[in-house]
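If your schedule permits, I should be very grateful for your opinion on a structural question. I have a record of one protein: its chain in single-letter code and its fold written as discrete structure tokens. Would you kindly read the sequence against the tokens and tell me how you understand this chain to fold? Thank you for your consideration; the sequence and its tokens are set out here.


***
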Amino acid sequence: MTATAFYSVLMVDDNAAMREALARSLTRRGCRVTTAVSAVEGLQVLKERSFDVVITDIEMPGMDGFDLASALRANPRTAELPIIGLSTMVSEEAIERGKRVGLHDYVAKFDRQGLIAALKEQTAGMSNAA
């Protein structure tokens, strides 16, 4: 991903500090980032707009990131949308659950380089979004 990538990213995280820090980091790397404070809000935003990638926190109150991924996979409009899960809970079991619900990648929440690598992988081959 270069500074001219302009990929549109929906960042879903209930933690304001984490949400804003990641949004700033991705914006500096050329992404257009929209944020949502919950999975329910993320679903609402996705009804109104399209994105190249969704990055979601896994551990959120109410509807968590696994539930969000399941909902996106169940909708034909978002069934193929790349989803990257972020969590402090990185275990084999959690990663396997993420695969079952359709996450394309699962990254430790504080691993910025891992997130950037996952984002690059998910956007490889995309033409720049308008």
Q: What stands out?
A: The longest strand covers residues 8-12. The chain has five helices and five strands. The domain at 38-123 is CATH 3.40.50.2300 (Rossmann fold). The radius of gyration is 13 Å.
